[in-house]
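Bump. Still looking for Glutamine synthetase structure tokens.
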Amino acid sequence: MMGHEVVLADLKTKVEAGEVDTVLVCMVDMQGRLMGKRFHAGHFVAGAWQETHCCNYLLATDLEMGTPDGYASTSWERGYGDYVMKPDLSTLRPVPWLEGTVMVMCDVLDHHTHEEVPHAPRSILKKQVKRLKAMGYDAMCATELEFFLFEKSFDQIRKEGFRDLAPISGYNEDYHILQTTKEEHVMRPIRNHLWNAGIPVENTKGEAETGQEELNIKYAAAMETAEYHSIAKNAVKEIAWQRGHAATFLPKWHHDKVGSSSHVHQSLWSEGRPIFFDEKDPLGMSAVMKSYMAGLLKYAADYTCFMAPYINSYKRFQKGSFAPTRIIWSVDNRTAGFRLCGDGTKSVRVECRIPGSDMNPYLAIAGMLAAGIAGIKEGLELEPPTKGDAYQSESGMIPGNLPAARDALLGSTMLRAAMGDEVVDHYARAAEVEIEEFESVVTDWEIARGFERA
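Sorry for the wait, here they are.
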């Protein structure tokens, strides 16, 4: 039998045995969230596995699910029609934290042409993976997920106006076994359920703040890594909710607290061989790796919007916080935007430390791959590594706010060539919407600062 026939036959057996009754049919939206429908498993097996539909506004919304204007792909004038959600049966997996449930990821297709929608996050990453494949390379990646756990539930916090937020712990719990033992009622099911869902979890640990956690997943092919990340992020929120707690991936939930990142590790392979490794080089870096990293550095501002997509994202970039401020690289140095890891070994790789916990992994990884491809094709030379405290200089700064990052995205000839004008303009408009919405709101800071004294 063909691959999809085997998957369907196995699922049908589980449905008939009463083990599975629900199929989550999911796409990834612009914000990296899982969107879709819950199918009765019997109906899915009978035919819905071929395709279903969704409103095309799902790839033109803000975080609030509003429908801002200014998108070329969809609008009130065009009537908000349908996209096709095409299940990729190779992604079917159990969802152990939900009873009798499995999940499948979908490609998003144009309703009329059945071609992939260019600005769908999954399509954007697939295109860059395909470009690398044509060069003879496979991209391997891993992401680190950082987030905060809170004492109260999502509903409690929302009803209280998101005020008086209390993290689940009272002190910095970085690597702290005693404190993280107190959190095992949340973290243990996260690890075990994700593992049983086929996601290769390595570990969890306390991070460098009160209530801050880190989840690490083993490296995999780029598409799988993005999928693991999106599913894990959704699972963390659902499992925390099931146990009466809230989890946030907001990069900077309080100005006095350390922010949350999502570092991305990456390397290129070919036929099972690490292309980034050269045993003759003092740091173990091949010429391909050096050009790839030079591309990451040269074009970092261009794809910063994909790594830091919201106003809040930029509040994290502060000196002395372990969050980077400069577009430089260094050897095993956590103060730089790009860190060389595993130097001198076959596991040599580059860690991009710029992305925040709010990144869409499909977009962030796609932006990095596009920049790395450009570095290789342009034969760029890698500048020497920075030594010492990278915070002690003001050169090569990461864009300091979303307007600056949006301008860099709009003006990127590299990304326009790699992804297409439609994609660049679409996500530049998304950044613009975020800016417009923020600028229209009166914040607590403004009121407290000026209520009496202005």
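The first helix runs from residue 3 to 16.

Edit: fixed formatting.
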